[in-house]
Specification:
Elements (H helix, E strand, L loop, with lengths): L2 E5 L2 E4 L4 E8 L8 E6 L6 E6 L6 E3 L7 E6 L4 E6 L8 E12 L2 E7 L3 E6 L1
Parallel strand pairs: 2-11
Antiparallel strand pairs: 1-3, 3-8, 4-5, 4-9, 5-6, 7-8, 9-10, 9-11
Length: 122
């Protein structure tokens, strides 16, 4: 059974930082593109960041570019999202996802985590 388990969410003040972790089990994702999406109340789920199997290629949504950093540790089958300079608009449930594919501008995901809440207070 494949599982993606997120941790590290919580309540933080504007300008603060959080580090999310996503531990995968049931199969190895070392050869897959992995990433993070988020969903704010009343909004659709949106792409946040992804990382290639090698870790050398990363992609970010414009809204988080320069503030968030995605990384991975294949030996631990774990993906991380370091979030700095957090803003109230970053408040959302964050979902680990993978493998991630993309075609014609749309993302498709094989597995989702259960999500972890991030709340940024002003």
């Amino acid at each position: 059974q494949v599982q993606l388990v997120e941790s590290g969410g919580g309540l933080v003040q504007v300008g603060g930082s959080l580090r999310l972790s996503c531990a995968a089990s049931g199969r190895t994702f070392s050869s897959s593109v992995m990433g993070w999406f988020r969903q704010a109340p009343g909004k659709e789920r949106e792409f946040v960041a992804s990382i290639s199997w090698s870790g050398y290629t990363t992609r970010y949504a414009d809204s988080v570019q320069g503030r968030f950093t995605i990384s991975k540790d294949n030996s631990k089958n774990t993906v991380y999202l370091q979030m700095n300079s957090l803003k109230p608009e970053d408040t959302a449930v964050y979902y680990c996802a993978g493998p991630i594919g993309r075609t014609s501008g749309s993302y498709y995901v094989d597995y989702w985590g259960q999500g972890t809440q991030v709340t940024v207070s002003s």
